[in-house]
Amino acid sequence: MQILQLLGLQKYNYLKSGYFIFHYMAFNEILSDRIREALSEQENVVEKRMFGGICYMVNDKMCVGVIGEEMMCRVGEEAFESALERPGCREMDFASRPMKGYVYVSDEGMRTREDFQYWINLCLAHNPQANASKKKTATKKAKL
Question: Whole-prediction pTM value?
Fold first, then answer.
């Protein structure tokens, strides 16, 4: 088991049969921790796993998250074009469909603390104007 820890595989289950089950995270947890810390003074922040990553909802609205190794930022359509001009930024294309108002930011775009904070501030500035997603209502099964 020490060998597994040396390999950096700290999340695993050991089965009685002698096999290990490894749990891989689909997103950069270090980046997620940075975002969590940056949002720590905000009210009404909820973490949700989605898109194979993690999303931070602020006031019940998608705000910022991590997908793979990139930060997903909801910047809004008004800041979208100028955001794309910054280093390390590209249009979010989830499931081969471009999403206006959302961008991915690679490590290149947030190398310094100031660059990282720029993206957090941009997401938080857009959040009050963003539309909240529609809540799914539970459907009742008809009695036969």
Answer: 0.75
